[in-house]
Amino acid sequence: MTFRLPDALQRSDDAAAIALLKRYYGAPYLGHGCADGAYFDTWSTDSDPMRFTAEDLIAIKFLSIDAPKTAVRALLRDRSDEFSELLETLGPDRDLANEGALLDHTWAGWRIMDELRSIPGVGTTTASKLLARKRPRLRPIWDSVVAAVTDTVPAQWEPLRAALRANDLALHHRLMRLRDVLQLPEEIGALRILDVIAWREGKDRGL
Fold it and tell me: Which pLDDT tens digit goes with each residue over 134-181?
């Protein structure tokens, strides 16, 4: 399994990465010209971390995802308690870079992804965005653009974890520095910074 850094992060200076982030989040934050997706990160951040709520279904709309009716029923009513138990088993949010063990398919995070994808109409992209709402520092967003830029079409989570941990967490620290340079909210973690850079770069390539 491989992970390829976006071109902007393969450079020694941060200018290209900062430019991409400014185009997405605005400068200042949520200023003129920010992308709709910029509102995903801080939409109703007081939402229960151990339960999917209607606010989560609204938040993913900013990332161009309309949850199917099957997901609304499953997450808010029919399987609400089941997913709450899975989130509790996964534990609180924490940085993916600090996960020392291999993320094999017995891991609690994968169990939630599998159960989300068991809902008719919910694929990997929707499932990843839903789980990223609950565990934004732990679960990266997956979509075809980011996967193409980072060469992670077959697998993303474990290769990214390994990349973040390499060289004494060098990539993780750089992403956090970029967030601080742009004075973005603390709710925006390393995974989201990387996601935005990769997505914006990919869209510029016409992916």
Answer: 999 999 999 999 999 999 998 999 999 999 999 999 999 999 999 999
Q: What is the 3-state composition of the chain as percent helix, strand, coil, each rounded to the nearest 5?
A: 60, 0, 40
Helix axes 124-134, 108-117, angle to 10 degrees: 130
Instruction: Give 85-109 as a DSSP string.
Output: HHHHHH-S---GGG--S---TTSHH
SS3 56: helix
pTM for the structure as a whole: 0.96
**131-to-42, 49, 125, 155 alpha-carbon distances in Å:** 15, 10, 10, 16
30 and 187 Cβ atoms separated by less than 8 Å: no
Backbone angles phi, psi at 15, to 5 degrees: -60, -45
